[in-house]
Amino acid sequence: MQGIMKCTIYKDVKNIVVETRDIPSISSHDILVKNLRAGICGSD
What we know:
Layout: E1 4-12, E2 15-22
Antiparallel strand pairs: 1-2
């Protein structure tokens, strides 16, 4: 699969960034999951 995707990267406490990266290549034994929504608990 080719293209780009946005991904959320946890770098450190209170340091979460959104980056654009290439969609990774996968093998016949892998799956690629598209996450539509996510949440972060404020107490975590």
